[in-house]
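Propose amino acids for all 85 sites.
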């Protein structure tokens, strides 16, 4: 049984969605989504990103093994260069 929420579109078509929280905001995705695919969708470079998934900081080498699922809490922080020269 799916834990996701159903949402009807165009009357008879049903799409399963999952709800999670990313950077403190509610987000709905069509299905469980690999972290790397989500970062790509955002246009974020994984090499310049820190991710906390359900309270655990994920090492970059572990990004490929993380899948975002119903109820997850994720914090994504992008590194920004700059400062004085």
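Proposal:
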């Amino acid at each position: 049984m799916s834990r996701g929420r159903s949402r009807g579109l165009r009357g008879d078509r049903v799409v399963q969605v999952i709800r999670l929280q990313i950077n403190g905001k509610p987000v709905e995705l069509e299905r469980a989504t690999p972290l790397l695919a989500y970062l790509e969708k955002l246009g974020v470079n994984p090499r310049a990103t820190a991710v906390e998934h359900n309270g655990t900081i994920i090492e970059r080498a572990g990004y490929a093994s993380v899948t975002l699922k119903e109820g997850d809490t994720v914090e994504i922080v992008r590194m920004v260069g700059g400062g004085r020269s």
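The mean pLDDT is 87. Helices lie at 35-42.
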